[in-house]
Amino acid sequence: MTGGRPTAADLDDDAGQLASLPSILVGLVGAGIQASRTPRLHEREGARQGLRYVYKPIDLEALGLAADALPDILTAAQRFGFAGLNITHPCKQAVIPLLDDLSPDAAALGAVNTVVLKDGRRVGHNTDWRGFAESFRRELHDVRRERVVQFGAGGAGAAVAHALLTQGVGEVVLIDTDQARAETLAASLRERFGGGRVSFFSSVENAVAAADGIVNTTPLGMAKYPGTALPVGLLRPDLWVADIVYFPLETELLRQARARGCRTMSGGGMAVFQAVGAFRLFTGLDPDASRMLRHFEEM
Q: Which of 108, 164, 195, 267 is 20 to 30 A from 130 via CA?
């Protein structure tokens, strides 16, 4: 280096070192994901693991596409050598018919948030439920959990309800604007956890009045979908409130809940711990979960 400026030889040396690192290319498919922290979270952990790790957002909204573009996106990802894709709203269930196989968790939940592309095959996994379960275990381990009202019965809702039941919740009450979807998810959960553990209500007021905790698994609260899944006037200080939305980290629901004295849990922990599982699937390496959590908090 001459005069503090890199020479051509320095640049060649740097390029050679970079080229010698193992390379991983992955992506995130969803709508309205420009604010997602997941790409930086993966890339930073990849760098710490000695990888050339590139994580590309594939934002359907920004591209003017809908979920029916998934077949073309998956084909393109395979052709361009992607190791895999994370899948988020609104594609977690729509992607399933396009896959060659499902992990046991993904098959049971009927939702996929991680697709591994390897040897010409597409295999769907679900790391969402373990992500939520780990966040819940760390942040809300001592709360009452006889009855929890969950808003949303889509792909993320299936994972969170499963996680709640594995964490000892006595009964999960599902509320969704699509009653048939709530009934279908309830039936699936009952097969795995027993008939008395899951129900669905059409009356939000009655369900919340009898609840110990509230979980939002709908997109409401995202920058793209402002608002709350329930009237905030129903919140009371003895409720705990969890949200899986993490951009923004403090949703309107959590802000209102804190103002009323509720204990709260943001979607940040779930975002990190599902990413831990996805990173492992994409790379075959064990990520440092504590380091990834610190990275997320620094963002």
A: 195
- Is position 92 annotated as part of the catalytic site? yes
Domains 8-126+271-298 and 129-266 share a fold: yes
CA R_g for the chain:
21
**Sequence-distant contacts of 268-271: CB under 8 A, at least 24 apart:** 268/135, 268/296, 268/297, 269/131, 269/134, 269/135, 269/138, 269/139, 269/293, 270/128, 270/131, 270/132, 270/135, 270/244, 270/246, 271/37, 271/38, 271/41, 271/131, 271/246, 271/296
**What is this structure's pTM?**
0.90
Among 56, 92, 118, 224, the active-site one is 92
Tens-place pLDDT, residues 175-205: 999 999 999 999 999 999 999 999 988 799 9
CATH class of 129-266: alpha beta
